């Protein structure tokens, strides 16, 4: 899938808990047909038990003060067996003010009762259907 190298949501990172990425400013919002966040993840596992991992694209319309998680992918079940995959999250945002534009960020939310969850992932922005 073709991605825009100038619109990276998250460079490769390994996390063991919920993490909010840095904001990416889309001054005019997304194109008419929206964009997709492509998330490539690997080494997704728990030491024991089970957790869920949910990737989402959060949007802020007020310069980063308030964030909305309106765009998310289905949960990935973490277990003691390492998992990997690729997810496409469609999102479509329009600014409410020219001064603020729209900010988006990639969030990885880990929840559940498992121990020592971990995941390595990166996120890119792409146009068109995956």
What are the salient characteristics of this protein?
six-stranded antiparallel beta sheet; single chain; 130 residues; elongated; mainly beta
Describe the structure.
It is a single chain. This protein is an all-beta fold and 130 residues long. It has one domain: Jelly Rolls (Sandwich), CATH 2.60.120.1110. The chain is built from no helices and 10 strands. The strands form 2 sheets. Strands 2, 3, 5, 6, 7 and 9 form a 6-stranded antiparallel sheet that branches. A 4-stranded antiparallel sheet has the order 1-10-4-8, with no helix packed on it.
Tally the helices: 0
Helix content: under 10%
CATH class: Mainly Beta
Predict the CATH topology: Jelly Rolls
Number of DSSP E strands: 10
Q: N-to-C SSE series?
A: EEEEEEEEEE
- Give the N-to-C terminal Cα separation: 6 Å
